[in-house]
Specification:
The complex is a heterodimer of chains A (235) and B (88). Chain A is built from 5 helices and 11 strands, in the order βαββαβαββββαβββα. Chain A is of the alpha/beta class and 235 residues long. In chain A, α1 links the parallel β1 and β2. Chain B is of the alpha+beta class. Chain B has one domain: Phosphoribosylformylglycinamidine synthase subunit PurS (Mth169, Chain: A). Chain B has 2 helices and 3 strands; from the N terminus they run βαβαβ. A 3-stranded antiparallel sheet of chain B has the order 2-1-3, covered by helices on one side. The longest helix of chain B is centred in the middle third of the chain and has 12 residues. Classes of the chains: A alpha/beta (235), B alpha+beta (88). The interface between A and B is medium-sized, with 20 and 11 residues. Chain B: One of its GO terms (cellular component) is cytoplasm. Chain B: Keywords: ATP-binding, Cytoplasm, Ligase, Nucleotide-binding, Purine biosynthesis. Chain B: One of its GO terms (biological process) is 'de novo' IMP biosynthetic process. Chain B: Its EC number is 6.3.5.3.
Chain lengths: 235, 88
């Protein structure tokens, strides 16, 4: 399975994301922000970093990168897309996910290992986890405070679209402790913490992050076999 | 000059921690009668020809403001003379 990892000017975690894909058993395909061709990948990761220097708002300019038009079209067609940190911000700016990520409430950049509770496993990126499972992955952001209006928040909860919540402390003030959400079809997931930094014992606090990438491979294998592993959309 | 000014503000219901930090610093200046400070962004767009408010509105809506969390307002910046700018 070929999973594309996009590099924008200012991306930082594209290398780690590609490495996580490989460790999970997939083939990582590097995609370039200026190239609208997705090169036939089966899924896409939008990595963390500071695309376009976070000018204007985080993700606001990346949303108009040539590659993003293709990613957005494919995502609407069911392509699994995972946005991590800055990638999550880009997905919100592109209206592929609801809400927005704003300045951390305490105004400090937070960089620590963070406990999350998996709240939704019916997505292309979390089907390898169990509901309620606690995982430990790094979090590192200055603008990770998830906000949306009450109606949107209620909708996300009612439809089971909150994918992960911060537990044992909320690092940025996100509403309802939301760390990750998905779209209605379950193929697009945005997560603020960094699963790609928790895939090897040498460098990560755990191997818990690997589950996101093995989930995508499992989902794609299920799709290829004609089965439907999750409630998500088919390509 | 064909200049359009776009003001972008966080919606009233969105918390503005930067504004709060500024408000909390004001007593150090000896100012104690401020109840709230909110911080926004002013963007000046220069057109080659006549200012085009419709284009400016599109730019503001699609890029300059995030309608999920921000409101914006647009106006043509009148050349100085019509209304004398306040000097500091």
């Amino acid at each position: 399975m070929r999973i594309g990892v996009v590099t924008f000017p200012g991306s930082l975690d594209d290398g780690d994301a590609a490495r996580a894909v490989r460790i999970a058993g997939g083939e990582a395909v590097r995609l370039w922000h200026g190239d609208p061709d997705l090169h036939g990948v089966d899924a896409v990761v939008l990595p963390g970093g500071f695309s376009y220097g976070d000018a204007l708002r985080c993700g606001a300019i990346a949303r108009f990168a040539p590659v993003m038009e293709s990613v957005a079209d494919a995502a609407r067609g069911g392509l699994p897309v995972l946005g991590i940190c800055n990638g999550f911000q880009i997905l919100c700016e592109a209206h592929l996910l609801p809400g927005a990520l704003t300045r951390n409430q305490h105004l400090h950049f937070r960089n620590r290992d963070q406990h999350l509770r998996i709240a939704g496993t019916a997505t292309a990126w979390t089907n390898s986890f169990t509901e309620g499972q606690e995982i430990l992955v790094p979090v590192k952001n200055g603008e990770g405070c998830f906000v949306a209006d009450e109606r949107t928040l209620d909708e996300l909860e009612a439809e089971g679209r909150v994918v992960a919540r911060y537990t044992r402390g909320n690092p940025n003030g996100s509403q309802r402790d939301i760390a990750a959400i998905t779209n209605a079809a379950g193929n697009v997931v945005g997560i603020m913490p960094h699963p790609e930094h928790a895939v090897e014992a040498l460098t990560g606090p755990s191997l818990d992050g690997l589950g996101f990438f093995t989930s995508a491979l499992r989902y794609l294998a299920g799709s290829a076999a004609g089965g439907q592993l999750t409630g998500g959309a088919q390509r | 000059m064909a200049r359009v000014v776009v003001d972008v503000m966080l919606k009233p219901e969105i918390l503005d921690p930067q504004g709060q930090a500024v408000a909390n610093a004001l007593p150090r200046l000896g100012v104690n009668d401020i109840s709230s400070v909110r911080i926004g962004r002013r963007i000046e767009i220069e057109f080659d020809g006549e200012p085009d408010l419709e284009t400016a509105r599109e730019i503001a809506d699609k890029l300059l403001a995030n309608p999920v969390i921000e409101d914006f307002s647009i106006r043509v910046d009148e050349p100085a003379g019509d209304s004398a700018p306040m000097s500091a």
